[in-house]
Amino acid sequence: MPKSIPFFDLAALHQPIKQELDDAMARVAASGQFVGGDFLERFEVEWAEYCGTRFSVGVSNGTVALELALRALGVGEGDEVIVPANTFIATWEAIVAARAVPVPIDVDPHSLLMTSDAIESACSTRTAAIMVVHLFGQPVDMDAVMRVAKRRRLFVVEDAAQAHGAVWNGRRAGSIGDAGCFSFYPGKNLGAFGDAGAVVTNDPQIAARVGALSNHGRSPNDGARHESIGGNGRLDGLQAAILSTKLPHLDDWNASRRKIFNAYSRALTTLPVTMVAAHGSGSSAHHLAVIQTAARDEVRRRLAANGIGTGVHYPIPCHQQPAFAALESTKLPVTERSAERILSLPLGPYLTRDDVGFVVTTLRRVLDEIGPPIQATRSRPVSIPFGPAPAPIVLNVRGSV
Ligand SMILES: *Cc1c(COP(=O)(O)O)cnc(C)c1O
What residues does ligand 1 touch, defined as CB less than 6 Å away? Predict the structure, then answer.
């Protein structure tokens, strides 16, 4: 059978710890502690400890984590939140769900991360918060971000959904701003058996507010009293138990990701592609191994024909999504150009040296076949090729120029 390497293989990740995972699920089933209870509390303590924060509040997914963090900080109606556009749409949805307004900024062309200069230029009198996105596992320069935030008295929320275990200057991604938000979607570096998320913070008030908002505004002392209007954004006991079982393996998995990422980096120096590189004093969680090539779509097709799965994170920047049609005229040249060139290679802790060799050899052959000079032939899509666009949310937006 010809070799085949899926983009990500959860079965391969879980196979070595299958017994531990089965035992954890059996323990939850026997205990009946499905909502709230010991498994949730245990994971919250462990995750806070891992991140180096005082508190961690488990919530139902990463999108809810982002929304509740903003609401807990009091970010709301009419407030502007500075955010990159090369992120999963959830980052933006959370800002809108909090009734605030996303103000997009462009990114650094090498790291594709937001910079403090761009943040400065996007600030207005209505700016309330900076939404940092540690994209692909690489931490943003948090020293620079925190300097701007301090000077301008802005909140900082970290979207660390791709950065479990990443470190900036000795501190974990997610632990540096006012609140850090994690997704434990199955494909993340630490993933549950379904949807899950968490907010970490050192501020007891923020932790308490996120806890209340995620659990119907309940008083911590009296479950019958509802002190604020919250909702249901809780993390299940079953997911918490799975996460507690997988957490002790996270550092080893991240170390394997780093080895594979570095092997790609070394091999690709001789090829006509660039790898999205880490920068500064950050230590990446290596969530994704992303290359840039002008012939992205053709490379992707040919890799697929050779049994190699890839991803694109993300093909349409948020400000160009139909849902955010109000931002149509916003121009973010680096973000827009990179969206046409980025390609995520297979990256999982279970990949062998042979697997990585196969990807590199195939990529080299495919690039040879396409041949230099590589010309971009694809023009920007003007509409989304599936279904009618839903009615756009009308936003009071201020585009960044
Ligand atoms: C996955 C992801 C989210 C959303 O998390 P969910 O758990 O799927 O809701 C948010 N931001 C980024 C950058 C992500 O990668």
Answer: 61-63, 87-88, 90-91, 133, 159, 161-162, 183, 185, 195, 197
